Amino acid sequence: MNQISRRGFLGTTTAAAGLALAGCGGGSDGSKPAAKLTGNRTGAMDKYAVGDQFKATVPLSFSIMHLSNANYPYKADWTFWSELTKRTNVTLQPTVIPQSDYNQKRSVMVSAGNAPTLIPKTYHPDEEAYIAGGAILPVSDYLELMPNFQAKVAKWNLNGDLDQYRQSDGKFYVLPGLHEDVWKDYSLAIRTDILKQLNLDVPQTWDDLTTVLRAMKKAYPDRYPFSDRWSTPPQPGANNLLAVLGEAYGVWAGWNYQHANWNATTGKFEYTGATDQYKQVLQYLNTLVSEKLLDPESFTQSDDAARQKFADGKSFVISANAQELVNHYRKDIAKISGATVVKIPVPIGPIGAAKTGIRLENGLMISSKAKSGKDFVALMQFVDWLWYSDAGQMFAKWGIEGTTYTGSVDDGSFKLTPDVTWAGINPSGTKNLQVDFGFSNGVFAYGGSTKLLDSQFPPEELEFQKVMGARKTLPLPPAAPLSSDDREQATLWQTALKDYVNQQTLKFILGQRPLSEWNAYVSELKGKNSDQFISLVNKAYQDFKKNHG
Amino acid sequence: MVTLNPPGSPQQATRGRTRIQTTRGYRVFQVCNALILTAVVVVTLYPFVNIVAQSFSSESAITSGHVNVLPKGFNLTTYKKVMSDSAFWQNYRNTVVYTVVATGISMVLTTCYAYVLSKRHLKGRKVLIAIAMFTMFFNGGLIPNYVLVSDLGLRNTIWAIVLPNAVSVFNLLVMKAFFESMPAELEEAAAVDGLSTYGTLARVVLPLSKAVLATMVLFYAVSFWNSWFSAFLYMDRSDLFPVTVYLRNLIAGASGGTDQSAASDTALQIASNIQAVTIVLTVIPILTIYPFIQRYFVKGVMLGAVKG
């Protein structure tokens, strides 16, 4: 361990020195690194622009880490591979890694200097571990080679989102999946037959939800109408409920918890667990618990226990996503006659009909060795086409027109061909889009326009998406990337703070500690360095704004 | 072959019973003993029987927690799915090959090393022991090992799995203790009759060491059978994976289950008992071999330990 961190330190210093030099170089002749790539154009297209089909001028091959998903394990004879080569003149050489331990093998291969050129399926901030060693390319320096990427960022106004991925040097090291809009899946599921029976409407706001729960309680005084799940530690419990409720109040909570919350009024970050909004969230839940509307076990019970209560009709409301609703809840309640359940649009809170979230997804790192390769420009063009062009995204997700699908997603005429099945579409189809063809593979297919995303949903989920899509997307907080030294210090503080916030969150909600002690709690947080942590973040924000804003 | 009867062995007990009238206290002790041991058997056997039952049960019975000793809603979907996959059999074959080759190599190396170390007159014996012991407490670490194996060109070959773990120091020491306990006179007699060192080892020592050899084979075979990490690390092609890597991935996929929208009934059934099915399938070969080696196993471990 010591050895590695010492090496890491050396790496950091070298990288920092290198960056300083690179910075000077860039400053002196005023050109970007991408402009100098005259000796690296083998196979590259001279005029490659948005809308063009990338095709290497000579056959090329690139190595790639390939995550072998257990549900559609890697096959060398997938149509995906052969069609990709046909269209782009590029052959991919995969290093196959089982999904179960992908990250570990990635770490070993990158650290040992043995990594393939393309390293997909990297979730921010995993890439940060490799930056100091210099093993991965600062891809943001080479965006000029990627017209489709740039076009999407401009069209969907993604610069604020990308800032979240930037390091304190102003660069980002992973090419993320780009989404047109924030995609929401998690919400609450409600027994609609009970609503009907009690003559209630689907709750639109969190206050409506309280009213509905009260009415349910009145009709069924012997049970808790709401018993929740997703309480895996280390979060406080009922992690989805806290997350969606927090979002409605404009604060990070539950499994979305982040320590720094942006206050647009003051232009500064605040410690999340000490904000007024966080207090209001706790207050709301405390009311539900004290009126016996929300099962106190919601915060500790296993998912199975919560599901069981819902299945037995002992509760009527539970956290949900599309998959849980269809795969479990509907089947669970089938034995109760007349029972029906839907996933309701996320109830609206004080911030109004809005949603927050980042529009980036896991993405691709590129080995820094690739830069010296003769075919580097072609590599970047290839990546740009496959992951960021409309045609490339359509190909990776739905395959080949006429073979696996017909129609177009833009006019809604899209359909899988009848013998091709995927995730519940065409259940009688004999060939599986993922297993037999290699399309819709998580390594290649993600991101894209809302229309492309919607093409995969059944009508019911599409309704939900329509409601959520109509809500305004709030801007993300500004970027405040910590330097690697600061990050180490911050992590130490965060660990202690998080434990304490979780523990006290639960006490406030369950009424074990009265909310009148809120101020005492805030000063206890200060005793655990919340102030120092926040000033570190605010300083990082100021620095980033000054240097790269 | 000289065998000692440890106190409490069946022979002694039988002899005891013929001489001494069993007292009331002893009978109470026996009843308690039987009860406690039966409880131990139940406690150790139940989880296994439960897993077997789960592997044959339906999804609804498993998620509602109704499966105990007998399967509920008999169902073979997951077995069919796992066993109809050609990759599963390919990887199963890999496991068998890796285990057999690795165990063979390990046995040869460990036996030779242990035999040498058991000779007290050997010069530098302590250094040789120290070298072996050193590796018990220190190693190069993950990444240096990976770099070493890569640079030796062993990646994507069976040797990456077989060679780095060929000698287990624990097994080596057990074996050394066993050889040390062997009467020196036997070997002297063999030497007088004209056998060379290798002759003595092959014709006198090894035939007398079946107990420890069987134990070591079992130890090595089980550990190679169960191992997945070095294969996962050094193999870049899925056709080289052992079945453990395959199953590990299957379990991860089934329990992860975050893959977009609705899964089919089959997928749900598989997710619910894939773990049970895989445990049963991987454990079967070991279970079938174990009873035949077990009698050596008990003796071998004890002999090594008593004298060590």
Tell me what you see in this structure.
The complex is a heterodimer of chains A (549) and B (308). Helix content of chain A is 42%, strand content 12%. Chain A has 549 residues and is α/β, with parallel strands linked by helices. Chain A has a domain at 32-182 and 360-395: Periplasmic binding protein-like II (D-Maltodextrin-Binding Protein, domain 2, 3-Layer(aba) Sandwich). Chain A is globular and about 75 Å long. By secondary structure, chain B is mainly alpha-helical. Chain B has helices at 10-19, 24-55, 59-63, 77-83, 86-117, 125-137, 142-151, 159-162, 169-181, 184-192, 197-205, 210-226, 229-234, 243-256, 265-307. Chain B is flat and about 75 Å long. The two termini of chain B are 20 Å apart. Classes of the chains: A alpha/beta (549), B mainly alpha (308). Chains A and B meet through strand 2, helix 3, helix 11 and helix 12 of A and helix 7 and helix 14 of B.
Summarize the structure.
The complex is a heterodimer of chains A (549) and B (308). Chain A has 549 residues and is of the alpha/beta class.
- Number of structural domains of chain B: 2
Give the SSE string of chain B.
HHHHHHHHHHHHHHH
In total, the number of strands of chain A is 16
**Proportion of helical residues of chain B:** over 70%
Topology:
The complex is a heterodimer of chains A (about 550) and B (about 300).
Chain A: H1 2-29, E1 60-68, H2 79-88, E2 90-98, H3 102-111, E3 118-122, H4 128-131, H5 147-155, H6 159-163, E4 175-178, E5 187-191, H7 192-197, H8 206-219, H9 239-249, E6 260-263, E7 268-271, H10 276-290, H11 303-311, E8 317-320, H12 322-332, E9 341-344, E10 354-355, E11 360-366, H13 376-388, H14 390-398, E12 405-406, E13 415-416, E14 420-421, E15 431-432, H15 433-437, H16 450-454, H17 459-470, E16 472-473, H18 484-510, H19 518-527, H20 530-548
Parallel strand pairs in A: 1-2, 10-16, 14-15
Antiparallel strand pairs in A: 3-11, 4-11, 5-8, 5-9, 6-7, 12-13
Chain B: H1 10-19, H2 24-55, H3 59-63, H4 77-83, H5 86-117, H6 125-137, H7 142-151, H8 159-162, H9 169-181, H10 184-192, H11 197-205, H12 210-226, H13 229-234, H14 243-256, H15 265-307
Helix pairs in contact in B: 2-15, 4-15, 5-9, 5-12, 5-14, 9-12, 9-15, 10-11, 12-15, 14-15
